Amino acid sequence: METLANLQSFVRSADAGSFSAAARALGLTPAAVSRNVAQLESNLGVRLFQRSTRKLTLTEAGERFLHSVSGGLEQVQSAIDALSHDAQQPAGVLKLSASLAFARDFLLPLMPAFIARYPAVLPDWQLDNRPVQLIADGYDAAIGGGLDLQSGMVARELAPLHVVAVASPAYLQGRVLPQRPAELAQWDGLVMRSANTGRLKDWPMLAPAGGQEVLQVTPRLVLNDPDALCHAALLGMGVTMLAMSDALPHLTRGALVRVLPGWYSDLGSISLYFAGNRQLPGKTRVFIDHVTGAFQAQNWAKRLAGR
Which of 158, 199, 209, 278 stands the most exposed, by the fewest C-beta atoms within 10 Å? Predict the structure, then answer.
């Protein structure tokens, strides 16, 4: 059975007259579309396009084949689904990229209900803080903050990405809580090194009543992983900046305390990223609906706000 990706690439290329235009519509690279069409031609044993530097022209065989799928890509999708084990049941491997801490605390609790409802979908997750090229790396979806919105991608916001100053009760014992970030200048700082620049991260913080001030600490430990910074804070080693999504479980049980209540650094939003073409696979569509619905029902956008 021919793959949907090859058929999509062929039909879009025929409609648009170029691989580049088809690639933009499908959220792929022109090279990927060209490979898909070449694979289709190889599988069928015929040439579907006459290629030139200016445009693509359908061959006679290509015209006949296009006519056979003239119902459109939705009908092609339906035809392929009808040959599957259960056309009404989303199925397949669902590749997701997310951070370990976020997946552990927010996504995994949603999975028992998801798997029970969609047993033919196999979640296959890559859990680390490494940025990925969603489409080029073959992921169905990614969850994170501050990802570049590449061509063909859509972002669905889940919650704000607010970063707050925290420390353990043991570290805070005997200390006077500060009122402003500048008052932390002599405190022991557990500091993040940027993976992009190699520099220590600065944290401009927004005040509860408006205005902004940069957090000042004395570096005592430098790490490049937020989960490691969190564990260092839990050990009472100093004050650090954590995303609310990383800090909230520890704040809730009292293992960490906000050092500057109301102050926070705004890094945008935590979003669910996926390819934006209309023929979204069923496995991806139901995952998106399941996660976004749960986040709305549990009011995570408000609970993860640092204000």
Answer: 209
**Overall residue count recorded for the chain in this entry:** 307
Residue by residue, pLDDT tens for the chain (307 residues) are 456 778 888 888 888 788 888 887 777 888 888 888 888 888 888 888 888 767 788 888 888 888 777 555 555 555 555 444 444 688 888 999 998 889 999 999 999 999 999 999 999 998 987 767 776 677 889 998 866 666 677 889 999 999 999 999 999 999 988 999 989 988 999 998 877 777 888 889 998 888 888 888 889 999 988 899 999 999 999 999 999 999 999 999 999 999 999 999 999 999 999 887 556 788 999 999 999 999 999 999 999 998 8
Given the candidates 2.40.37.10, 1.10.10.10, 3.40.50.300, 3.90.650.10, the CATH classification of the domain at 4-82 is: 1.10.10.10
Q: Which CATH number fits domain 92-159+273-303: 3.40.50.10420, 3.60.140.10, 3.40.190.10, 3.90.76.10?
A: 3.40.190.10
User: Which own/partner contact pairs does 251-256 have at CB distance under 8 Å and 24+ positions apart?
Assistant: 251/166, 254/169, 255/168, 255/169, 256/166, 256/167, 256/168, 256/230
Residues of the chain by 3-state class (helix, strand, coil), percent to 5: 40, 25, 35
In this prediction the pTM is 0.68
Q: What is the CA radius of gyration of the chain?
A: 25
Q: How far apart are CA 217 and CA 228, in angstroms?
A: 18
> Does domain 161-267 bear CATH number 3.40.50.1820?
no
